[in-house]
Amino acid sequence: MKFGQNLWRMLPSGVPQLREQLARRPWRLEVEHRQALEVRLGMSTAQLLPFLSSRLGDGDVAVGLAKSGRTFLGPALELGDRKLEATQTLVAQMFVAGEVLEAFSCSTPPVGASRQLLRQLWNFQELRWFGGNAHSFDGLLRPDDQLLVDVIGAGQG
Fold first, then answer.
1. What's the CATH superfamily of 2-153?
2. Does the model's pTM come out above 0.90?
């Protein structure tokens, strides 16, 4: 998988036990490993997320920061005739781990199913997005977007 190859190639030396941790959980960085990468690369968290998302895979990777401080990697996945977008994979990874998404980066604004999935998160209005030329979701939603809660509450679901 190209995502895994790019990840292993870009790892700097000098981050203790990072390779071992990624061998066990390749799509998750523990807090201490993220912090060590930031120090080693001379970056803040806000700089590291776009750095990782722009250098992993073929530009179709989302990188998210959980409220716990863990970092999750979400590559787009080809599943036969279906495809999970990077943001969808990221949210699924975090959901399975019982985490809450706080901030994320991807090369283009989430659209379509990814945007709708993000909108279902209880903390959507608080999410920070690092990608493109903006750092917020202003203007990303259309007035006709509906929350799943709105549909169920209206007896439509």
1. Cytidine Deaminase, domain 2 (3.40.140.10)
2. no
